Amino acid sequence: MPVLPGTGVRSGPGEFAPQESPTPPAPPAHLGRAVVVGQGYVGLSLAVRAAESGYAVVGYDVDKERVTRLVAGDSYIEDVTSGRLRPLLTSGAYRASRDPADCESFDIAVITVPTPLRDGLPDLSYITESTRMVGGFLRRGATVVLESTTYPGTTEELVTPLLEAASGLVAGRDFHLGYSPERIDPGNTRWHLENTPKVVSGVDGASLRHVEAFYRAIVETTVPVSNCRTAELSKLLENTFRHVNIALVNELAVFAHELGIDVWEAIDAAATKPHGFLRFVPGPGVGGHCLPVDPSYLSWWAERAAGRTFRFVELANDVNSHMPDYVVRRLTDALARRGTAVDGARILLLGLSYKADTSDARETPAARIAELLLARGADVSAADPHVAHSVPPASGVLDRVRRVTAGAGELSAADAVVLLADHKAFDYDLIAARSSYVLDCRHRLGGANVDVL
Question: Are 220 and 195 in contact (CB under 8 A)?
Fold first, then answer.
């Protein structure tokens, strides 16, 4: 079977070896009109980078507060600073809008909306709504790309018929369609959109060429694969790999503590092996959009498509989802040894985001930990220099938590301090010196008053 130039080579019967394609020199301005649907961590980063690369970009979002802030040049994510956003607004290269009419006449539209779980099942309603809106403005020769994480088959089985019904056009013949999984890692200062290799795919050869051409203008490396289902599966594989390995060390941490072994020292020792081992570390639970959600998409798809349960995913879900309960149990036991009950105890949580140095509090384990402690009658406060006071969708819990700064007074007044996200902004010497007891879930502190998860 022939392979399109620049898309890969056949390495054997039924095998496809993707070839990384380096980006050519900086593209000229006025590459076309792009619409990016969804202006969250993924969509805003993509929209800004496309505008910087020469596209005239409309960032579409239904959230009024988001759009108002973007129009004012006020970014709400660390990866796109306000200083980077404002020149693009001034030049007209980027504009934010809630009006669907502003999405007309696009050359390329990229859908980057959330794909949450509802009652444990994939919810593709945001993709469905966005696709219908985009389809209403679709014209011949245009390109549509789905970036939202989803199960294999979504692009061809859901997005294609919706676009065709809304536009009266045919995918592959009249317009181009593909899938390219997002790989945004909020707060990562080494790997960002531009230098993270981008997997690309299309429903046919021409679609793949157009999808790859768009991303080659904005990222350093593209990695074409043979079809959309492979690209969709690659994203789920990436996150399931992390999810399973984090679950492994989380469960190991529980057993090691019971056996009196320092799991962190064991991990560090194992990590000296130069081959065959990747370092994962325990934590209070997983968060963000990816790990608490994406592996469940893979498990659901596997059961639906093959009639079998994906046992690794189910086990990882069970372990990681119960880590907040384990943190509260460890804290309760530690307080009891000190003659203090959780009911009425002053407990200070350090870090509400799911990881260090980001404001991303989606699916944060801190919400579940706070909920459990409040239910036990604790007086819970929290300090996080990155996370705003209202944190959807967990704000119902976190808004009940008193917000403070991690100063000497609050540290000294707390019966227990729990380090959940190890932000660089925290003064760890002060935390160790002024806290009577610390449960350190990130292995950042030492001392007689510190227990490590």
Answer: yes
